[in-house]
Amino acid sequence: MRPSFWPTTHDILPPYLQAGGTGAFAVRAVLAALGAPSWGIYSGYELVENVPRPGVEEQLDNEKYEFRPRDYSAGESSGIARLLGSLNAIRRVHPALRQLQNVRVHPTENDSLVCFSRHLAAEHSPTDRADVVIVVVNLDPWNTQEGLVHLDLAALGLPVDAPFVVRDELGGTTHTWHADNFVRLAPSVGCAHVMSTGQA
């Protein structure tokens, strides 16, 4: 059996999603898509459906109670639909993201930032090349957060005493990183860096 991560389900709408709006939906999508080898979303997630039934943690117009037609073209305005597509494209390119036992959490100096990596050695990769993906997420759906991230480079199969180039798979930019890196992440769909070393 392999675990599957879901940002939410049809009958659970936690306070974080109720109050956090688009930013919270983006954060949970990134964590679900890149935190496990299998993930899914429930119908309407890209529409940021976050209105609860009074007094309970579930959607107001819950499909347990009614047929729910949706206008999915409205999802383009929030950016969540594009984010979901980008996350799936990243998963297709990086075999490290399809493994179960290769998640490593790295320390940060800001509790609102979480950093984890997925590393697949060349001898285990279908591409015969090592694959490294480093994910940094701003958990605060309302505010920009910044701070230092400390990477265990040896665990990633990277030289511990030399800089290396990473490409942000979400932003399309490249950066020179080291063991200690300053990051600054906005809320909403810009909530994360998904850095790859270009080895895959």
The gist of it:
This protein has 200 residues and is an alpha+beta fold.
Question: Would you mind describing this structure in some detail?
Answer:
α1 packs parallel to α2. This protein has helices spanning 15-35, 80-93, and strands at 4-5, 38-39, 103-106, 113-120, 131-138, 145-150, 164-168, 174-177, 180-185, 192-196. β7 (164-168) and β8 (174-177) form a beta hairpin. It is of the alpha+beta class. Helix content is 18%, strand content 25%. It has two helices and ten strands; from the N terminus they run βαβαββββββββ. It has two domains: 4-90, no CATH class; 100-196, Golgi alpha-mannosidase II (Immunoglobulin-like), CATH 2.60.40. The longest helix is centred in the first third of the chain and has 21 residues, at 15-35. The strands form three sheets. It has a six-stranded antiparallel beta sheet with strand order 3-4-5-10-7-8, covered by helices on one side. The mean pLDDT is 91.
